[in-house]
Amino acid sequence: PAPAPAPAPAPVPSHATGLPMSTLPKFLEFDRKVLRWNAFFKEAVTESAIENHRVRKCVIYMYLEDESVYVGEPRQPNSGIPQGSFLKRHRIPVGDTGAFFGIGDIHVGETVTFYGRSFFVVSCDAFTRAFLESRGVAVAEDQPFPDEPIELYRATLKKDTVAFPYPPAPRNDVLAAYIEASNGAPSHLLVADKLEKFLANDRKVLRFFCVWDDRGALYGEKRPFVLHYYLADDSVEVLEVAEPNGGRDPFPVFLRRQPLPNRKLSADPTAQTKSDSYVTHLDLRIGGTVHVFGREFFIHDADAFTKKWYVDNEGFDPVEDFPLVDVDEPSAPIPQNAVPPYNGFGGLADSLQNCVALIPKPVRPDFDKLMTYTDTVLRFKARMIKDETGQSRYTPTESDEAREFIVSVYLANDTVAVFEPPDRKKQIVGGKFLERQECLKPNSAEKYEATDCYAGARLILFSRCFELHEADGYTYGFMEQHGPSFPRSDVKQVVARLRSLLAGREAAACEAFGGAEKTDAEGMQRALTAAGIEVVKQECVTLFRRLAGGADAVDVKTVCDELGVAEPEEKTA
Fold first, then answer.
1. Where are the beta strands (DSSP E) in 173-332?
2. Phi first, then psi: what are they for 317, rounded to 5°?
3. Cα–Cα distance between 513 and 506 in angstroms, integer?
4. Nearest 10 degrees: Cα torsion 350, 352, 353, 356
5. Cα–Cα dist 175/170, whole Å
6. Pairwise CA distance, residues 125 & 133, whole Å
7. Lowest mean pLDDT: which of 256-260, 294-298, 335-339, 456-460?
8. Nearest to 446, CA basis, from 484, 414, 479
9. How far apart are CA 406 and CA 421, in angstroms?
């Protein structure tokens, strides 16, 4: 009997190739390393007189990090075959052995079978060849792809373009130019000239920035534009620059690309209107103008490429031929809405919201000030007096001048409240005289604040003049702690001011005290007033509180020493 055929050699698994082990993990050593083979398989074609089979070209990728395989088929134009991903990436088993394909299972010049589909490997790339040879795997020489019947059939349909080139190349000689010119074609439009210029200047565009000032016409305005000059065919394109809030529709093309005549067109009723002279790159200069069909455009700048092209090709000077032209005009001031005068109804800030927004919003308070001075209230004793300036329209009676009031100033929101204490002797019931609210100064939109209140100040509240003549201890202490905000309670400022006013009046000041040994704030005020010094009671109270230290009176000599006033005999001695 005939001997049985030798069994086919079993595929060598990757772990049996004898490759050296790596000290790094496999997914790190072979990260982003892929082996690539070019392969093909033949597909039968029935019912076709042109071809009986078709060669399908594929690319086999093996990712070394996990030895997964991906098979892709490059797309061929007009093939009519769904191509692309032929076999998705995964580990492919080798038959029923339980092993998977590895780097030693795919060889150039041999057939590899994936799920019953046989691929003949014809070549591999340089990286794959070097990698396999470094691992001791022999790699055969690359082979070409087999010819396809359809390609052979298509080759028979092609003409012999080598012996008979078609279309024939255009002639570039004097005779061809003469014939073209005799047929009416100008010399600059000949095929050779246009092609040479196009190849030399294709995609080279000069860019100029210009403005069109049409404010002399009705509803005209000054508008920016961008002018493009194409060096390939000497055509011009004008684009409109869309400005924010310009009020115009986004229609950027102002003039489509075309040759731009550089002179006024002459209309001929018997023939087509045309021009034989057009704008060239030498007509476009920074600081000059260009006429675009009756519109005068002023060129004020160009981009960097345009300037470099003129310097390299036309020999322009980078400074003299490209001056800095400023076309920006100072913007007109934005008109502000005039705030109408306050009518006295409601709060000033609330009424102002009706002028700011169509739907008024509540006024946001100053939270920092509100949280800092929530419980801070300055209280003053006041009496109603006659206003000598004439700003108060109310004239108090004798009974009004005898009444006592307490004016409270709330620092949290600068509101003022007036309370009248009861007095049985004067038959005054007392109670709330003025609700807590913001009070405006007469003939002004400015409201009264805490800095406007001090002993001796006069406040006109709703046509009634109040004179503040005293404050409580907390108010005096608070004002002295915040001297920069209350200068009449700052001892240093008060002493410096009084010393400057008393310079040269020392004798009058000493005589004003009348030889008294003790004095208080009111006596100090009367003495300084008698000496011709304008002083308010708050300043005298501040100085008195500093020198008295809580006592009811202070020595006159101490006051004089503080103010720099001494007896004439002492100065002589």
1. 205-213, 222-230, 235-240, 253-258, 289-292, 295-302
2. -85, 130
3. 11
4. 180
5. 12
6. 12
7. 335-339
8. 414
9. 8
Hey, what amino acid is at 295?
A: R
* Residue with the larger pLDDT of the pair 478 and 514: 478
Question: Residue 486 has which token pair?
Answer: 């209350």
Return the percentage of the chain with pLDDT > 70, whole number.
90
| CA–CA dist 532, 506 (Å, integer) | 11
Please tell me the distance from the alpha carbon of residue 27 to that of residue 46, in angstroms, as a whole number.
Answer: 46
Q: Is the pLDDT at 6 greater than 50, yes or no?
A: no
Burial 540-549, CB ≥16 within 10 A → b, else e: bbbbbbebbe
DSSP 3-state assignment of 454? coil
Pairing of strands 117-124, 111-114: antiparallel
Let me know: does 96 contact 83? Beta carbons within 8 Å.
Answer: no
Spell 513-526 as b/e; 16+ CB within 10 A means b: beeeeebebebbbe
477: phi then psi, degrees, rounded to nearest 5: -65, -40
Collect all residues with Cβ–Cβ distance below 8 Å to 325 and sequence separation of at least 6.
286, 287, 300, 301
Gap between the Cα atoms of 355 and 352, Å rounded = 5
Token pair listed for 74: 């490059």
Alpha helices, H only, 361-464:
367-372, 398-401
The counts of H helices and E strands in the chain are 16, 20
**How far does Cα 505 stand from its chain's mean position?**
65
Closest CA relative to residue 61, chosen from 73, 46, 71, 53:
71
User: Would you give the DSSP letter of residue 339?
Assistant: P
For tokens 């807590």, what's the residue?
436
State yes or no: pLDDT of 253 exceeds 70: yes
Beta bridge partners of 90: 69
Query: DSSP labels for 385-405?
Result: E--SSS-------HHHHT-EE
List pLDDT tens digits, range 362-409: 888 889 999 999 999 999 999 999 988 888 889 899 889 999 999 999
Residue with tokens 């002459």: 266
The answer to whether 505 and 532 have CB atoms below 8 angstroms apart is yes
pTM: 0.47
Q: What burial letters (b/e) apply to 211-249, b meaning 16+ CB within 10 Å?
A: bbeeeeeeeeeebebbbbbbbeebbbbbebeeeeeeeee
Give the DSSP letter string of 64-75.
Answer: TTTTEEEEEE--
H or E element that contains 526: helix 521-530
Residue 370 β-bridge partners: none
Pick the closest to residue 565 from 502, 513, 522 (CA basis): 502
